[in-house]
Amino acid sequence: MGIISRGFKRPDRPNGDVKLPPGQYRTSDFPVLSAGPTPRIAREDWRFEITSEAGASRSWNWQEFRKLPTDDVTVDLHCVTKWSQFGMRWRGVSLDTLLADVETAADFAFVRSYGGYTTNLPLDDLRDGKAWIAFSYDGDDLHPSHGGPARLLVPHLYLWKSAKWVRGIDLRDDDEPGFWEQLGYHNYGDPWREQRYWGD
After folding, report:
1. What distance lies between CA 10 and its chain's CA centroid?
2. Which helix (H) or strand (E) holds 30?
3. Ramachandran angles phi, psi of 192, nearest 5°
4. Which pTM does this prediction carry?
5. Residues 93/132, Cβ–Cβ less than 8 Å
6. Which residues form the Oxidoreductase molybdopterin-binding domain (predicted)?
7. Burial of residue 67 (number of CB atoms within 10 Å: 0-12, 13-18, 19+)
8. Residue 87, exposed/middle/buried by CB under 10 A (0-12, 13-18, 19+)?
9. What angle do CA 130, 133, 134 make, to 5 degrees?
10. Is the CB of residue 119 less than 8 Å from the CB of residue 179?
């Protein structure tokens, strides 16, 4: 099954683009890459849940989620397929807000998406203003092809860690690899260290 949308092209990397992580090239479009078909989740059916390592859970439906404080963030994103785009404008709810009332001593997060996709991160990478559940891109509702109605946004890591169509996060004491991590992608995914695959 293809994971790159039709029409995706690789422009040349411009010389002297010092903001690019190693091995990346700059693009001005937003390529669509997915590990499978695009789920279509109606907002009235959408639910997001955080479950602690002790089994306690906190969940929000769409209306509850949209009543939470939101942030407007402008970030650079870097995909493991080597494209980068600068200055992308998002709106979302900070994970700091969502985790505020969750009692946990967990070290890891296991992210689950509608459609079955999963990924894993250290919990510290979701805190302190580093991550959001984003529902708007470039002033519009987030399109399903880019993860709408809501996706995880963790801009300091390669984009596969920013799970599309997010539906929940399990807080864990142990680190369990997600979909791409089980298939050989790096367990952490720092673009500035070129952590694309296991062994990088």
Report:
1. 22
2. none
3. -75, -15
4. 0.89
5. yes
6. 36-180
7. exposed
8. exposed
9. 105
10. yes
Instruction: Please provide residue 198's backbone torsions phi and psi, each rounded to the nearest 5 degrees.
Output: -50, 135
CA–CA distance, 100 with 49 (Å, rounded to integer): 13
Burial label for 150, CB within 10 Å (0-12, 13-18, 19+), is buried
Q: Consecutive 10-residue runs of the chain (200 residues): their mean pLDDT?
A: 38 56 91 79 97 97 98 97 96 98 97 97 98 97 96 98 98 97 97 92
**Residue 91 structure tokens:** 């709106």
Q: What letter represents residue 147's amino acid? A: G
Return the closest-CA partner of residue 31 out of 78, 87, 97.
78
Cβ-in-10-Å burial (0-12, 13-18, 19+) of 180 comes to buried
Give yes or no for a contact between 103 and 56, defined as CB atoms under 8 angstroms apart: yes
Give yes or no for a cis peptide into 149 (omega within 30° of 0). Answer: yes
pLDDT in tens, 19-52: 899 999 999 888 777 777 889 999 999 999 999 9
The answer to whether 164 and 149 are in contact (CB under 8 A) is no
Q: Burial of 47 by CB count in 10 Å (0-12 exposed, 13-18 middle, 19+ buried)?
A: middle
d(CA 88, CA 137): 8
Residue 153: closest CA among 129, 183, 178, 180: 129
Greatest C-alpha distance within the chain:
51
Q: For residues 16 and 117, what is the distance between their CA atoms, to the nearest angstrom?
A: 36
